[in-house]
Fold:
Amino acid sequence: MSDTAPGASILEEHRFPCPACGADLRFAPGTDALRCQHCGHEEPIEAPRGNIAELDLRAAERDDLSAVDMEETRTARCESCGAEVEFAPGIHAESCPFCASPMVTGTGTHRHIRPQAQLPFLLSEPEARGAMKSWLGRLWFAPSDLRKYASAERAMDGIYVPYWTYDAETRTAYTGQRGTVYYENRVVPVIQDGKRRMVNQQVAKVRWTPVRGRVARDFDDVLVLGSRSLPKRFTDAVAPWDLSALLRYDPRYLAGFRAEAYGIPVHEAYGEAREIMNGVITEDVRRDIGGDRQQVGKLSTEVGRLTFKHVLLPIWVAAYRYRGKSYRFVVNARTGAVEGERPYSPVKIAIAVLIGLILAIAIAWLQIKQS
Structure:
């Protein structure tokens, strides 16, 4: 397939000149406007009208999407984390936004599916930095100088991360067994007051009945990450996302930010989506079987209409190199949820262990003294 990418890439920053002074306008998080950082001029953004396009997954698998749904970028690969970054014109070296490793210019052509929608940034960089510092402050064994280092270093990077959403019409035929719980009286030996006695007890039993049937489920916006640049546990931890607020793709919302190209192609990510769907279908079958207990046998699912969207979701990313190691922090730019790699301070851990030993010795001493 033509949409396959060897890694992640960062698309070129979208730029819009300020009509007042010529400087670059940037999208102002939490607003519907572009704002000039130089003179303060604002340009309102009309909310994109019309429905968000859904593309046919089977057509994508046949490499049969329309040319207007595709685009190309040129990328450079980060040797440390594998991310592929497109440099802005005139820039020949910078740090990778995902791992803070130095990068130099390299090129490579990548053809991929255009985004259909995005969630605009709500949190500004200072708000995201405040959320990250608060999160770091709650880590007991984090090195104190790491928090100071994070506060003093460069600003966080605002990045739109690629995701896929899938819609599917499914019909499933199933076989299984319905369990009905009933009770039998049995005489069993028990020990009461030190003596062995025979008493009546009710014992639960299950009567199983073979069943078969059909369930239907229409899935909407099953969300799957399309990037390998960050650990999936990071992006899972900062979920959920308010997908009902998705707007039809408009590059003005990306002005001043980066948009990462997907590293997981649409047909590969669909495998994870099917696992999510299968879990929901299995629960539907259990409810349809009914009874007190259920055993699900064979499932046969037919998928009718199957569509997808390439959507961009906003995060703030900080990547700091500290004592030779890279630490990454991710902030959901809609909710402020934070996740990152947890650094540990050997000194703080040693002090905590020492305090614990002192307390244990003190408690033992008091017990001996009182005995």
Q: What stands out?
A: The chain has two domains: 9-171+222-264+309-340, 344-371.
